Amino acid sequence: MTDCDEIPADHPRHDSLVTRHRIEAGVDAGITSRQGLIAQGRGEAFDYLLGEETIPSADRAARAAAATLLAAEHPVLSVNGNVAALVPEAMVQLAETVDADLEVNLFNRTEKRMAAIESHLEDHGAREVKGRNADARIPGLSHERAKVDADGIKAADVVLVPLEDGDRAQALSEMGKTEIVIDLNPLSRSAQVAAIPIIDNILRAVPRITDHARDLAKAGPEAIEQARTDFDAAEALDAAEARIRDGL
Amino acid sequence: MTDCDEIPADHPRHDSLVTRHRIEAGVDAGITSRQGLIAQGRGEAFDYLLGEETIPSADRAARAAAATLLAAEHPVLSVNGNVAALVPEAMVQLAETVDADLEVNLFNRTEKRMAAIESHLEDHGAREVKGRNADARIPGLSHERAKVDADGIKAADVVLVPLEDGDRAQALSEMGKTEIVIDLNPLSRSAQVAAIPIIDNILRAVPRITDHARDLAKAGPEAIEQARTDFDAAEALDAAEARIRDGL
């Protein structure tokens, strides 16, 4: 995270400033799209309303996500342009911690962006990045938007899809995947269809899932099972909505 | 609005789709900046929370704005990149209706963007566009951000600043201008410092000010005075905040 060394960790708007900085760098690197910039703005507004902090229900969701990834047969972490721009290192660390694949998966897919994101992840320590084969399809989506790897997302039992479009999130859910979504809008379709919606800034959420995964891996199978069953998605969405109301 | 003929007026997300479409076209035309795209996203989030409709207090604010522009000695409508991209025709019509100047005024000012926005406004019917002379300054702002026309914003008694940055809005207010702000976040500094904050989507707000202005011009000086005195800025901000809370 050398790009953000100038912003002190205790700066009251630290996450917001780091996020903005990385998204702008993502545009320069050909990673972040126009839609990505607009999505970033939507996220800023919701994070502002949440108080720019991880609420307790989001922490429980991150713990449930960690448990679910650890218990999965074949977990895959989906990476789009904003995810790659914002948390490349944290995604690589999470993939290693829970033994998951990383797969680049773009709503606006071009070969150039696919390549830029793949090499950006590799620059941040990724050893293998899936998504270029595109030898399988998500049913119910138009051609370009449906492309996935047969031995990646197509074969996964658990998928982490941070900052995902609603159509895609719904289609993945209909494929029977256990879907973990990170999204700042508790009313978005992505958050609504997820088995585990984490209503938090991705900058805070991804390292938190990794921390919980390390913790749970040490604690053992019973703790993992407990974290999974303790979580209630509807309750988490309600808590986030209430915080946005009260936070105003 | 020929660019958006394909989107039916009764489409439930009409404003959102038109807005997105125009902002993207604004990028292609060199009018919308990266910051503008992010700001667009923030606006989308707040408009979503407002229910994507003009609330009664925003209509009263639009009426007070119309009255204040009609009663002004020298009203100026400030235009930035997003304003030009989103409502060029509506701004030209409002300027004609209330006999105001149009002045291009950019937070990220470059000669190229100034020229692109000026010609975009001219393409939509503007006869005179101020802002290129830049022979005066707003006190308290850094050099580039302070530039205004001596016979434009500098000399104005009433300024409409839609989608304005907080620093600029505050500095204009400190110059003693009567400031009308259009902003979707009732808690933003721009909205807070405005004499008349209109908490609404600019796509809905600008034509509405024009409609009220036509109406009030016919109704005469007493109606104009009434619309100005009837308006309470703090009440309007509270109503928008309450709507965002309850509307969820």
From TrEMBL, chains A, B:
Keywords: ATP-binding, Coenzyme A biosynthesis, Ligase, Nucleotide-binding. Pathway: Cofactor biosynthesis; coenzyme A biosynthesis. InterPro entries: PPS/PS, PPS/PS_sf. It catalyses: (R)-4-phosphopantoate + beta-alanine + ATP = (R)-4'-phosphopantothenate + AMP + diphosphate + H(+). ATP binds at R20, R42, D183, L184, N185, R189, S190, N201, I202. One of its GO terms (molecular function) is acid-amino acid ligase activity. HAMAP family: PPS (MF_02224). Homodimer. NCBIfam families: phpantohe_syn_Arch, PRK13761.1. This is 4-phosphopantoate--beta-alanine ligase. The lineage of its organism: Archaea, Methanobacteriati, Methanobacteriota, Stenosarchaea group, Halobacteria. The gene is pps.
